[in-house]
Specification:
Layout (H helix, E strand, L loop, with lengths): L3 E3 L20 H14 L5 H5 L2 E6 L9 E5 L4 E5 L3 E7 L2 E9 L7 H12 E2 L2 E2 L2 E3 L2 E10 L13 E2 L4 H8 L3
Parallel strand pairs: 1-2, 6-10, 10-11
Antiparallel strand pairs: 2-5, 3-4, 5-6, 7-8, 9-10
Length: 174
């Protein structure tokens, strides 16, 4: 019995494919999707074992109104951080929303984006629990890279394997 939902995505073999506006062309996003597909292909991932159900989809910056506001000191204004992907995990009365953005560590703006996330979703360096309709809702931000050992600042937000998602959830009270 399937216990997850999947929003189909189109992945381009060409990086500059523009005929379809919402296609995944960014190499880091394609690599993340490939790793995720491989991780869940055997049907025995912790996603299925540890949760009642889970959902995964790509956030579309042109259609979705989902973003994390953050201050961009270079431009002196509040900007919208739209992570590329989102997971929803449900177990009993716990509902975890995990934003994943697969970007390289060279993107210096990641620090400001993390700070924007922390203001909204953390308290005393712990993920806040929001109570909504009898559910305990927690929201996470993870940045995906090929080697998290290259990261110095805010290393707890970086993952380099899909299985690291579970470690973050367990560390924060799953």
């Amino acid at each position: 019995m399937l216990q997850h939902y999947y929003n189909p995505m189109i992945i381009s073999k060409e990086e500059h494919f523009t005929l379809i506006k919402h296609i995944i062309t960014v190499p880091s996003e394609k690599k993340f999707i490939e790793k995720l597909s491989k991780f869940i292909s055997d049907g025995k991932s912790f996603f299925d074992e540890d949760f009642d159900w889970w959902i995964f989809s790509k956030l579309n910056e042109h259609l979705d109104e989902v973003y994390i506001p953050y201050y961009d000191p270079e431009h002196g204004r509040i900007r919208k951080f739209i992570p590329d992907f989102i997971f929803w995990f449900k177990k009993n009365k716990n509902y975890d929303i995990v934003f994943v953005d697969p970007k390289g560590t060279a993107h210096i703006n990641y620090v400001n984006k993390i700070l924007g996330y922390k203001v909204l979703f953390e308290e005393n360096n712990m993920v806040r629990v929001f109570n909504f309709n009898g559910l305990n809702v927690r929201i996470y931000l993870l940045l995906y890279t090929s080697d998290k050992n290259k990261v110095r600042a805010y290393s707890e937000y970086w993952i380099d394997s899909i299985s690291d998602i579970k470690k973050v959830l367990v560390r924060n009270g799953e």
